[in-house]
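# nightly structure sweep
# worker-07 picked up a monomer target from the shared queue
# config: single-sequence mode, recycle default, output format = structure tokens
# input follows
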Amino acid sequence: QVQLVESGGGLVQPGGSLRLSCAASGIIFNLKAMGWYRQAPGKQRELVAFIASGGRTKYADSVKGRFAISRDNAKNTVYLQMNSLKAEDAAVYYCNVGEDYSDTYFPSDYWGQGTQVTVSS
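# output follows
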């Protein structure tokens, strides 16, 4: 059974940093691409970043240069380091296990429960 458990969300001031973690089980982690999504109230869920099984990464334009996705295959965990946070980054962040082809991420139906990120002074 696939399980994804996110953690690390919280309240942070604008300009601050957070690191999200997503622990995966029930998959052959090192063979899978992993993605981070976010969903703000009233908006569609959007892909923030993904990391391929080989470590190649891709980011949404809105977070390039501020966010960094990484993975630790020994711990079956994917991370999202978020720096220089802005009010518009506030959302529930979800991780997903999927596949990547031709630099495009294809999500599976497996999602974590999400972790809330609030950016406010």
